[in-house]
Amino acid sequence: MTFKALVTSKSAAGIATSLLDFSAADLGEGDVTVAVEYSTVNYKDGLALSGGRIMQAFPMVGGIDFAGTVEDSDNASFKPGDKVVLNGWGLSQTHNGGYAQKARVPGDWLIPLPENFSTRDAMAIGTAGYTAMLCVMALEHGGLTPAKGDVLVTGANGGVGSIAISLLSALGYRVAASTGRASEADYLRGLGAAEIVDRDTLSAAGKPIQAERWAGAVDSVGSHTLANVLAQTKYRGVVAACGLAQGLELPGSVAPFILRNVTLAGIDSVNAPREVRLEAWARLAKDLDPAKLQATVTEIGLGQVPDVAAKILKGQVRGRTVVNVNL
């Protein structure tokens, strides 16, 4: 039996992605087969489909996450009919991912879907929202509370940024949102941002220590932006770093760490332990406002993914893009 899958191939002519009929025999190893219902488009998906050194074998079904219903299982933790979600692990890197109507994966990679989420909700959250919650948990672990001051979210229009704003504002924080698109101010305020910061004030080289502004921050941008955020973080503040939209480098100094006791927490969503994933999804089920979540979502079909993936690399996508694999 075949089904629809978005397959990325590599040849002498370069990287190409096509919507094809795919066989279950080619899905790869795993002890659970899932009827996929939804996936998403994340920044990492844009890198993968563009040939940005994410995929380590070809041909490959892209998509770093999915949600769906268990169809067949040899894993004692799951049975047919169970609703599940998967973020990261080897998807779209070494293992076929979520841009297909079926997936076969190791059961240890799967998380039971919280009862108050549909599979569409799960991918409206997706890897971006799960990463945003990991950032919030890291800020809390570092001792941050709303009473300590404002929290900055960079890359605010993106998936991580949008959901981080919603989560932090719901938890009582005053949130400042950094964006290069002034036209999106109303959208960001609707998510809970109390202040809009022009990203140009953060994206160029700056002094190693600057005026104290932020008790904490969620950064998905990296490079000069992260260096400036650290330089502006208050004494004993906490910054969670989860992205590299501006670049991999960190052109700053140790001054914020040794003069202000700032904590920089790195966030890895791909290989996070199962117990951390379970906690993150439980927190999302409790702390995320469903109405705000829906305000961030655009739904597309499998065939539209390559165009959206190219746009996300250019910073032209707002919020979350949900992929209905059956469209």
Question: In words, what does this structure look like?
Answer:
The protein is of the alpha/beta class and 327 residues long. 28% of the residues lie in helices and 29% in strands. It contains nine helices and 16 strands. The protein is globular. β9, α3 and β10 form a beta-alpha-beta unit. The two termini are 19 Å apart. Strands 3, 5, 6, 7, 8, 15 and 16 form a seven-stranded mixed sheet that branches. Strands 11-10-9-12-13-14 form a six-stranded parallel sheet, sandwiched between helices. A three-stranded antiparallel sheet has the order 2-1-4, with no helix packed on it.
Largest sheet: 7 strands, mixed
Question: Element order, helices and strands?
Answer: EEEHEEEEEHEHEHEEHEHEHHEHE
Q: For this structure, what is the CATH class of the largest domain?
A: Alpha Beta
Count of helical regions: 9
In a nutshell, what does this entry contain?
This protein is globular. It has nine helices and 16 strands. By secondary structure, it is α/β, with parallel strands linked by helices.
List keywords for this structure.
Quinone Oxidoreductase, Chain A, domain 1; Rossmann fold; 28% helix; alpha/beta; 9 helices; six-stranded parallel sheet; seven-stranded mixed sheet; 29% strand; 2 domains; 327 residues
Task: Itemize the secondary structure elements and their pairings.
Elements: E1 2-11, E2 14-23, E3 32-41, H1 43-49, E4 60-61, E5 65-73, E6 83-87, E7 102-105, E8 111-112, H2 119-141, E9 151-153, H3 159-170, E10 175-179, H4 185-191, E11 193-198, E12 214-219, H5 223-231, E13 233-241, H6 255-259, E14 263-266, H7 274-287, H8 290-294, E15 297-301, H9 305-313, E16 320-324
Parallel strand pairs: 9-10, 9-12, 10-11, 12-13, 13-14, 15-16
Antiparallel strand pairs: 1-2, 1-4, 3-5, 3-7, 3-16, 5-6, 6-8
Helix pairs in contact: 1-9, 2-3, 2-7
